[in-house]
Design brief:
Length: about 325
């Protein structure tokens, strides 16, 4: 075979990306560019001679469409216009916030983001205070996004997104475990019924970050939180944004020190209806299903090795515990 072998996901050269950035942007000379992290997308960190740091995200094919990306950029520019601290995209010399990369697997898109000042938020010291501040900041984010709109289409964070599509992706991995697949279908049906019965149309809707685990924010020396990584965000149930925080508290065995302060902080900055609070546990359970779904969905790029019986034993056990606590 003389032509290049097909690929579904390539790791682009950091040096070539740095050269491309140097041509497209008016930054000081780039002194360092390295692959920072993989996962949903590939993120590169580069530094300039004037001691500034930026992050370059190259979106992965089949994960986000161009419209998805443009919608995310609209969110971040809206927040910047409102003065809310979030890592904003940087426009190039032509005023564009993204550019096209002809990768071997097809067209990919790249965006440069500012660095969020400070260091990643931590709960090792004063978890009650930090959780309260995080809740306040999330409330401010929701306030700033109440009037957001975009002409670009993006997925909605609805029941189909949380439950139906994940089940479709999970099913092949549980073909040899019919009892567990039956259980997953049963709890999914129960969750959909309970959410619709709230009723769902009375729950608050708006743009959600989608991954507010209590992290994805840096804190500076003045205590200001700057959020980043809105890649999982979209229009949907605001209770879900709160539920992701509780979901992560459960994973880290930190519900007692964090959850109530977080909700108190959120209430200090924004009104929340009792119905939305009651919906949070339902979306915690949905988050467990979504999490398995996103891992199985991305198996072609990430590999099937980790998606073994041990993985599903753990994930299904966590879901059953949440069901016992909340349903």
């Amino acid at each position: 075979m003389n032509k290049p072998y097909p690929a579904i996901h390539s790791i682009l050269s950091a040096k070539t990306l740095a050269d491309d950035v140097s041509v497209r942007f008016s930054f000081a000379p780039i002194t360092e560019c390295q692959l920072f992290s993989g996962g949903f997308n590939d993120t590169y960190r580069f530094k300039t001679s004037d001691n500034l740091t930026y992050y370059l995200r190259v979106y992965r094919i089949r994960w986000r469409t161009l419209a998805d990306i443009q919608y995310e950029l609209d969110v971040l520019n809206h927040l910047k216009g409102k003065g809310f601290p979030a890592a904003a995209p940087v426009a190039d010399n032509d005023g564009s916030f993204f550019w096209v990369i002809p990768a071997v697997e097809g067209t990919r898109y790249a965006v440069v983001f500012e660095e969020a000042p400070g260091s990643e938020i931590s709960y090792k010291e004063n978890p009650v205070t930090i959780a309260y501040q995080y809740g306040e900041a999330v409330a401010s984010m929701h306030n700033a996004l109440d009037d957001f709109s975009s002409p670009h289409k993006r997925f909605h964070k609805d029941i189909d997104h949380f439950i139906d599509k994940p089940l479709h992706n999970i099913e092949p991995f549980l073909s040899h475990r019919p009892e567990d697949w039956s259980y997953l279908g049963s709890i999914a049906h129960k969750l959909k019924h309970r959410i619709m019965k709230m009723p769902a149309h009375s729950l608050e809707m708006g743009f959600c970050h989608g991954d507010l685990q209590g992290y994805h924010a840096n804190v500076d020396s003045h205590g200001v939180l700057t959020f980043y990584d809105f890649d999982c965000g979209g229009y949907g149930f605001r209770a879900y944004d709160l539920a992701v925080f509780l979901w992560c508290c459960r994973l880290e065995d930190a519900v007692d020190p964090r959850w109530e302060p977080f909700i108190q902080g959120y209430r200090a900055g924004r009104q929340i209806h009792d119905l939305d609070v009651l919906a949070v546990p339902l979306f915690v359970c949905a988050r467990y299903i979504w999490h398995m779904g996103v891992h199985t969905q991305n198996a072609p790029d990430w590999g099937i090795g980790p998606l073994n019986d041990e993985y599903f034993n753990k994930k299904l056990s966590q879901l059953r515990e949440a069901e016992n606590d909340y349903l």
